[in-house]
Amino acid sequence: MKAIIHIIRKNKKIKGGFDKPKKEGFTLIETIIALALVTVVFVSLAQLFTLSIMQNLRSNEMSNAIFLAQQQVDYLRTLTFDELNVFPNVSVGESNDEELDINNDGTLDFRRITLVQASSDTGFDVLIMVFPISAQAIARDVLIANPEKYKVRAIIHTVISR
């Protein structure tokens, strides 16, 4: 048996099987380049993931703001002519200014400003703006005059007629 193994080894040496050094595995430079490429891909994906989360949060905030504005319009449409006439003081263009906690966690989420003005004998001009709570300290008139500056999340301007 040993003789057969010796002959096989001898034949392999003649063919050059053991004479040449075999190249196995990766060199250090190849490994470093591969790690750099993988790092670049993962960093890009992490940034994309972060951007996606931020866009989802903004979309959720805007959806909630639009819902709050539409909810106020629906409420105002249930009021009678006399009730709308005194909401809060239509004759001087006062607005209803509310700070809202939509999920009842004790933290204010939005600020909703509702402005109702009589536009004719049978109609009311309604403007509803919903701001993030970061606009809490800003004066109402300033927000109404320049809503885009304070990142308004929803604006509904409509007419309610009776």
Strand-pairing-aware structural class: alpha+beta
The CATH class? Alpha Beta
CATH topology term:
Pantoate--beta-alanine Ligase, Chain: A,domain 2
Rounded mean pLDDT score: 85
DSSP summary: helix tally: 4
* CATH homologous superfamily heading: GSPII I/J protein-like
Characterization of this structure:
The model has no long low-confidence stretch (mean pLDDT 85). This protein has 4 helices and 4 strands, in the order αααβββαβ. It has a single domain, classed as GSPII I/J protein-like (Pantoate--beta-alanine Ligase, Chain: A,domain 2, 2-Layer Sandwich), CATH 3.30.1300. It is of the alpha+beta class and 162 residues long. It has helices at 2-15, 28-78, 81-85, 140-145, and strands at residues 95-100, 110-118, 123-132, 154-161. Strands 1-2-3-4 form a 4-stranded antiparallel beta sheet.
